[in-house]
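This follows on from our talk about sequence and fold. I would like you to pick a protein and set down its sequence and fold. Go ahead and set the record down below:
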Amino acid sequence: MDHKNIQLGTIVISLINKGQHPSLELPVSYQAFTSRLAPDIILQVHREKAWAFELDEVLFSVPENWTLGIWHGKKVIQKVLNDSGLHQVLILQPDYGAGEVYCVGDRWLEGSPIFYPLQYPLDMLLVINLLALGKGVALHAAAVDDQGQGRLFVGRSGAGKSTMAELWLKAPGARILNDDRVIISQQNGAYTVHGTPWHSRLPVVSSQPAPLAGIYFLEHGQENTIEPLSPSDAVAKLMVCCFSTHWDPEGMNSTLGYLNELVKRVPCYELGVVPDTGVVNFIRARNLDR
């Protein structure tokens, strides 16, 4: 049977190809994230020449990109790939234990002999919904494993996350997890940071997690500075950079509760940065997280 298992954070997704051709294939950045663990959700993958239905309710929509809604009591995410009508549809059972993926359009049948059925952001939206069940959070952040210490650098677009990751890339003993999007999970009472395939400018990702030792909120500065943040300020800043289920109040409450517990256990700082390699030594010299 043609199938692939992907692990993102602690969530394992199993893709099962219901047809014979084309075969499933993972994009390059996803290949490090394969898993042999038991899946949290099993998705049956179909290819169709035509697909037409109307959602009973639209919960959230990004025009000309993706839409999330309800159809026959199930949650549905539609991804439009281009203006020719080629798109993908993800239908999820209410308990998120199983689902169906439909790849719609003649090109799925006539094109390449390989294909990936969860084009971004379909897979990320799936993970966000699963994380909101109390399984973790996804953040707009860069992360590095600094000699066994997971350092998380949080910020909006343009805050310098990719630049920070590039600086750590040159540091002995450091490993880049991702420069743009990461997942935080809790395992055995401790928090762990995971890389994802969804990188930004720096195409370096790692599927090997690291124990989360410190959270740094990036600010441009005239010199390198660091100040501790209160838990309340840290939660407010994390919510701005958190990928959350805006369409689901229960999921939002779960995410907020998760972040409140996170900042009680992991030290948080505001980090003023001069973007050169000196900031790496600046952070290491303070030994704050050890």
